[in-house]
From TrEMBL:
The keyword Cytoplasm applies. Pathway: Carbohydrate biosynthesis; gluconeogenesis; Carbohydrate degradation; glycolysis; D-glyceraldehyde 3-phosphate and glycerone phosphate from D-glucose: step 2/4. InterPro entries: G6P_Isomerase (IPR001672), G6P_Isomerase_C (IPR023096), Phosphoglucose_isomerase_CS (IPR018189), SIS_dom_sf (IPR046348), SIS_PGI_1 (IPR035476), SIS_PGI_2 (IPR035482). It is an enzyme of class 5 (isomerase). It is found in: Cytoplasm. Its main location: cytoplasm. Catalyzes the reversible isomerization of glucose-6-phosphate to fructose-6-phosphate. It comes from Elstera cyanobacteriorum. One of its GO terms (molecular function) is carbohydrate derivative binding. Keywords: Cytoplasm, Gluconeogenesis, Glycolysis, Isomerase. The active site is at 347 (proton donor), 380, 509. Its EC number is 5.3.1.9. This is Glucose-6-phosphate isomerase.
């Protein structure tokens, strides 16, 4: 479907991927207005890419030809689009409005969603007020979320992002099975004042189960077995396994197999966030995601932010051949957004078979490498490669119009200036002639000018997208995350892959389980020569 369009876009990509962005702007004074889109105060600026009217028309045609609108509607309607696992994909139901009716296999799931949300709110507000108390009747001052992957990154990222709204107990997160993680968190805490939330969709993940058991022992050693009931809560789809762990039903919050782990921050997995910022703010966060869902469902494709964002991703990956993208939030509180989007994007779209299990075309590239750090820090670390390295890596900048620190307005002005300067520098570059002129103006002798000019030249024509918003509040954060979720969806729909399974994580887990006895005891028990040498050496270091 859309093969003709695909080849036409390949031809455009071959011709345009190194197009002069200076020239593109010079040719079209309205370029910013024509190649940016917004919904309310959320702006997607893709003018600093080589996308021109013909490219955009081709990409929008491709989205139609690949059935993106129909695939989107099937997801929202609860169809079993996660075909390998025969599951619906309904993280959107978790933020749907009060009137929504969404059926899975003929059953409206919304009453269950609302009932669970009500229980979560009662629990979160109880912990915040102290009415849900520790074993000694005192207040919880600290909560520790034990989970990994989707049961960790969402709450970690959102809690940090919404720090200005954090008025509940302190929140801590333990994910890594490395004992250092648990140890370093626990050493700051008083068991009498600490509530643990064990978050695991499957309640089998070895890292989480190991950390949860160790945390339980720490608590029991200090307060005795009887305190476990008051100091532990759980979030999972596997209620039987939670019960077997010893966490009471009234402290257990469920979700459903139609919520993927990396899409689960809207569910009970968001409990630490709700305890940190309160139920009302959490509702604003959900409302933001709902606003983006409505926009994604109803805006025409050419004005639809997730569709445009996805199409630009496809343009860069498939038609320009760029292997990666850098996520650069100029917003310190989004420091963990790159890690969060890494899971969302790479676990969803790092795929090599088609959604129906058949082969993908051999030369079809799917998800790119996603990485990043907040600006301005990254500027002093790895931007050298973005500006002068041999690979072109499209950048994605995020910037708020307004910070949360009006008393530090100078800081925000510097942040904005740096963000805008970087996208301008990447796009414009600096020619040798310009570098020469600058050095001459600085009064350097001619031989120094000639020597230094090549070092000080930049190729330019490095594309970037900027996402701008008024202020990072719960509503906007909800919109931003949903924007990224739907962008991943659009790309997967075009590539014809299933964004909602993750079989690629299994092999490593199986091998680790098989290796564990040998690591603990006898290296010769390892049959595989790929590992035997290294394990033996490790034991002797
Ligand atoms: O191993 C990958 C994965 O299954 C992720 O998809 C998931 O978010 C994470 O592990 C944690 O899984 P669980 O919530 O079941 O512990």
């Amino acid at each position: 479907m859309g093969e003709g369009r695909w080849s036409a876009l390949e031809a455009l990509g071959a011709e345009r991927k190194n197009a002069s962005l200076r020239q593109i702007f010079a040719d079209d004074p309205q370029r910013f207005e024509r190649f940016s889109a917004r919904t309310d105060d959320l702006l997607l600026d893709y003018s600093k890419t080589a996308v021109t009217a013909d490219v955009l028309a081709g990409l929008l045609g491709l989205a139609e030809a690949r059935g993106v609108p129909g695939q989107r509607d099937a997801m929202f309607a609860g169809a079993a689009i996660n075909r390998s696992e025969n599951r619906a994909v309904l993280h959107t139901a978790l933020r749907a409005g009060p009137e929504a009716v969404i059926t899975v296999k003929g059953i409206d799931v919304m009453p269950l969603v609302r009932a669970t949300q009500a229980r979560l709110e009662t629990f979160a507000e109880g912990v915040r007020s102290g009415s849900i108390a520790a074993a000694d009747g005192g207040r919880f001052t600290d909560i520790v979320n034990i989970g990994i992957g989707g049961s960790d990154l969402g709450p970690v990222m959102v809690t940090l992002a919404l720090a200005p709204y954090h008025d509940g107990p302190r929140a801590h997160f333990v994910s890594n099975v490395d004992g250092a993680h648990l140890t370093d968190v626990l050493k700051t805490l008083d068991p009498k004042r600490t509530l643990f939330i064990v978050a695991s969709k499957t309640f089998t993940t070895i890292e989480t189960m190991t950390n949860a058991q160790s945390a339980r022992r720490w608590l029991v050693a200090a307060l005795g077995e009887a305190a476990v009931g008051a100091h532990f809560a759980a979030v999972s789809t596997a209620l039987d396994k939670v019960a077997a762990f010893g966490i009471a039903a009234e402290r257990t919050f469920g979700f459903w197999d139609w919520v993927g782990g990396r899409y689960s921050v809207w569910s009970a997995v968001g409990l630490p966030v709700m305890i940190a910022i309160g139920a009302k703010r959490f509702q604003e966060f959900l409302a933001g995601a709902r606003a983006m869902d409505t926009h994604f469902r109803t805006a025409p494709l050419e004005k639809n932010l997730p569709v445009l964002f996805g199409l630009i991703g496809v343009w860069h990956r498939n038609f320009c051949g760029f292997p990666a993208r850098a996520l650069l939030p100029y917003d310190q509180r989004l420091a963990r957004l790159p890690a969060y989007v890494q899971q969302l994007d790479m676990e969803s779209n790092g795929k090599h078979v088609a959604a129906d299990g058949g082969p993908l075309p051999a030369d079809l590239k799917t998800g790119p490498l996603v990485w990043g750090e907040p600006g301005t820090n990254g500027q002093h670390a790895f931007y050298q490669l973005l500006h002068q390295g041999r690979d072109v890596i499209p950048a994605e900048f995020l910037i708020a119009a307004e910070g949360h620190e009006p008393e530090l307005a100078e800081h925000h002005a510097l942040l904005v200036a740096n963000c805008l300067a970087q996208s301008e520098a990447l796009a414009k570059g600096r020619t040798v002639a310009e570098a020469t002129a600058q050095l001459q103006k600085a009064g350097l002798p001619p031989e120094e000018v000639a020597r230094l000019a090549p070092y000080k030249s930049f190729p330019g024509n490095r594309p970037s997208v900027t996402i701008a918003y008024r202020k990072l509040d719960p509503f906007t954060l909800g919109r931003l995350i949903a924007l990224y979720e739907h962008r991943v969806f659009v790309e997967a729909a075009i590539w014809g892959i299933n964004a909602f399974d993750q079989w690629g994580v299994e092999l490593g887990k199986e091998l680790a389980t098989a290796l564990l006895p040998a690591v603990k005891a006898e290296p010769d028990a390892v049959a595989d020569p790929l590992t035997r040498g290294l394990l033996g050496a490790l034991r002797k270091l």
